[in-house]
Specification:
The two termini are about 15 Å apart. The protein is globular. The protein is α/β, with parallel strands linked by helices and about 300 residues long. The chain folds into two domains: about 5-95 and about 290-310, NAD(P)-binding Rossmann-like Domain (Rossmann fold), CATH 3.40.50; about 100-280, NAD(P)-binding Rossmann-like Domain (Rossmann fold, 3-Layer(aba) Sandwich). The strands form two sheets. A seven-stranded parallel beta sheet has the order 8-7-6-9-10-11-12, with helices on both faces. Strands 2-1-3-4-5 form a five-stranded parallel beta sheet. It is built from twelve helices and twelve strands. Helices cover about 35% and strands about 15% of the residues.
């Protein structure tokens, strides 16, 4: 009898750790076949996924013995949390385990965009010497606005403050009386629009829910400074892709760095083709060896402990 189904890549050391105690069905491409995943879930007490497997509908319907779900990452929008709560299924995200990696990539994006270092390698190799278009700005002294103030935003905040940026955040879930504001030295904004208007850079770190879908549409983007940059290392759908593409073409803002998309990978007809001042990465914010080790170890331990406790 299978104890744990793992539908996406897991670090070999974490897999070996689980395999010594439990019967594992591991197929890192199983997420591509939801019907097969659903069929495997009968009688299985644990499931481990990343962000691509959709844990809802027939998958949960067939999971008649499930006790827990391990999420190799932090976002939970691919899991039907309401159904899990109703059925007392424990869900373990890897909270905090990949925050530093995402924050480092965001910090790198800030440097690249402020220095206009998007696409000059080929020009340099060709001998065109594009120094004029690389006239950029320092990040020191600039205002960084964080949309959401969870673990990743906090990790980015202290890095940004360390290089002299002024950091603010908007998060309606973190009360003004929370000690975190004084502890981090981050300025709290009650109103998102007020923060957006004053920022030199905006970095998004909120989940994709009904309230955040298309949060940064053309109307919101037009409230930004014309020389400001926008970063989304959270989830696709928070920034309206057609709107940010058009905003960059029309030079409404100075640049954008996007790591998460509504459909992944991008299609051949992507709205981002030919868009200037755009920096794209393939949902890679957490993709470091160190973060993957922490994430996989944390979730392997959480799932193992849950199964032992319920045995």
């Amino acid at each position: 009898m299978v104890d744990i189904v793992i539908s996406e890549y897991i670090d070999p050391a974490a897999l070996k750790r689980l395999d010594t105690e439990f019967d594992i069905h591991y197929d890192q491409d199983l997420w591509r076949h939801p019907d097969q995943l659903a069929a495997l879930m009968h009688g299985v007490p644990a499931l481990i996924v990343r962000f691509q497997a959709q844990v809802r509908g027939i998958v949960l319907d067939n999971a008649d013995a499930i006790k827990c779900i391990g999420r190799l990452g932090v976002g939970l929008d691919n899991i039907d949390m309401d159904t899990c709560a109703a059925r007392n299924i424990e869900v373990f995200p890897a909270t905090g385990a990949n925050s530093d990696s995402v924050a480092e990539l965001a910090m790198g994006g800030l440097y690249v965009m402020f220095r206009n270092a998007y696409h000059v390698t080929d020009d340099v190799i060709a001998g065109n010497w594009p120094r004029p278009k690389m006239m950029g700005r320092e990040v020191m002294g600039k205002a960084l606005a964080l949309v959401g103030f969870g673990a990743i935003s906090k990790a980015l905040a202290w890095r940004a403050k360390g290089v002299g940026m002024k950091v603010s955040a908007w998060d309606p879930c973190v009360d003004s009386s929370s000690s975190v504001w004084a502890e981090t030295g981050v300025t709290r904004y009650e109103n998102l629009l007020d923060m957006v208007k004053e920022a030199d850079a905006i970095s998004i770190h909120v989940p994709l829910v009904d309230e955040t879908r298309d949060l940064f549409d053309l109307k919101m983007i037009k409230q930004m400074k014309s020389d400001a940059v926008l970063l989304n290392l959270a989830r696709g759908g928070i920034v309206n892709e057609a709107d940010i593409a058009n905003a960059l073409k029309d030079e409404i803002i100075a640049g954008a760095f996007i790591d998460a998309f509504e459909v992944e990978p991008l299609g051949a007809d992507s709205v981002f083709k030919g868009v200037p001042n755009l920096f794209l990465t393939p949902h890679a914010g957490a993709r470091t060896f160190e973060a993957d080790d922490r994430v996989c170890t944390m979730i392997a331990d959480a799932v193992a402990n849950c199964l032992k406790a319920s045995a």
